[in-house]
Amino acid sequence: xxxxxxxxxxxxxxxxxxxxxxxxxxxxxxxxxxxxxxxxxxxxxxxxxxxxxxxxxxxxxxxxxxxxxxxxxxxxxxxxxxxxxxxxxxxxxxxxxxxxxxxxxxxxxxxxxxxxxxxxxxxxxxxxxxxxxxxxxxxxxxxxxxxxxxxxxxxxxxxxxxxxxxxxxxxxxxxxxxxxxxxxxxxxxxxxxxxxxxxxxxxxxxxxxxxxxxxxxxxxxxxxxxxxxxxxxxxxxxxxxxxxxxxxxxxxxxxxxxxxxxxxxxxxxxxxxxxxxxxxxxxxxxxxxxxxxxxxxxxxxxxxxxxxxxxxxxxxxxxxxxxxxxxxxxxxxxxxxxxxxxxxxxxxxxxxxxxxxxxxxxxxxxxxxxxxxxxxxxxxxxxxxxxxxxxxxxxxxxxxxxxxxxxxxxxxxxxxxxxxxxxxxxxxxxxxxxxxxxxxxxxxxxxxxxxxxxxxxxxxxxxxxxxxxxxxxxxxxxxxxxxxxxxxxxxxxxxxxxxxxxxxxxxxxxxxxxxxxxxxxxxxxxxxxxxxxxxxxxxxxxxxxxxxxxxxxxxxxxxxxxxxxxxxxxxxxxxxxxxxxxxxxxxxxxxxxxxxxxxxxxxxxxxxxxxxxxxx
Length: 616
What we know:
Helix content: 25-40%
CATH superfamily of the largest domain: Periplasmic binding protein-like II
CATH class of the largest domain: Alpha Beta
Radius of gyration: 27 Å
């Protein structure tokens, strides 16, 4: 019999997984050869492109159908839930640990005092633990995320992990770091991100093969409890896929490769997702414990599931916890029925979507007016006391230029570390870039870097979390960030407003970066700009969110407010140029910065425009 040709992705981890199957087949007396190929997902680093369905499996299944390989080895969690009639999962070898790991950057300072890793375990220690010790040494999700400081940048491209993390810590900034496990660990070590979520199975396989270097092994973190943090359906399991009716259909080696408890657990998790009408992009986690129980085969001992509401990005985009539903079933309460469990999850989701009834709006005048739309206002003021009345006063409108972007300048023949980066410099730019990438997928293939938390959250809301988010409020700070974490030879693409962006480009060019910049949109003053009815300018407190908002205010001819706040240095400078004195500037353009500004300048409670009836 000719050797069995095993198809696999060309990444280091995928090769390791294929080698595991090849060695097991060799033990069964079957000759094999491995053929590695690049998948569509492996040829992309971008957040939007990476979330397309089947990008890691399409080339492998195509090779299987055309007969250039006899079987392919997938990570089971990467396979679509829906069965393909001409293909069959012939074997699920014994499952590796299905846990997620939460890993911290080496120099991360905890929320509070001390180092964020003080209570965490070294990665090498976590991976070396025996199976019984691994099950015991887990941390509940809330406890594991607690050491992260406010606004920490969390690396994960998984919607499940993003939604789950933000449900526990809505202040976190999610970055869709891409690349091999080793590359993601490098991002963590460089300080480009503050924490990383990764499947333990992949890290463990790298460690056992000698691919994990000593500095990475010294990273600290937690193993997350599967009951409070269910894994992706099928995580840790491999899928050996063959052609139905092909040369390996019914081959005894396939049955010998299969581990019945692993198959039963992984397929129960996938089946539950299928009952909920979801796919691999749904923010859904499930963990099933299947145990062998005599001649009838494995039975489900317990199942835990966690799912986020379909609109989870909307609250997460403004820094609020997205709605999630947790459900569990145990054999201790009778046989586990996946239909019953799925029905309970669906009912809880419907109730969660309904939410509490909204009360009548208060007639009290606002304590603070913010010159942006409602979503930005909600994000920036979410940490203020709920008694503080806030109003949105959109100062500008956006015009997007329908002109060609320089796609001809994209060179993906460079080494992957030198691929061009798309720099998204503001929440407005985020909306423009996300819309353009939906029309022109080439831009979705590039890695994206957001300038600041607000921009990162705007991208998340648009469904395209950035690959990295720089803590920077201007070009000089970003240039320092880029020098630290990005290859000096990678070009930077900067779409910007016709009314600004040149200072950012100039700072990057002065730092020696190769920059391609172009005007992608412009902002116009809002012609309907006016004070809330009954509010006097002398008593007004206004937070200006951009220099363009200041220009809009100048053009409106309105009287200047009695108190002017700025979200950053550029906006403060614009106010001062307009002749405004005594401008108060937030230390950082975040909800925490606005909260500190309020407490420093006003106090813990609202003081302006208080309804007299509230005094007695």
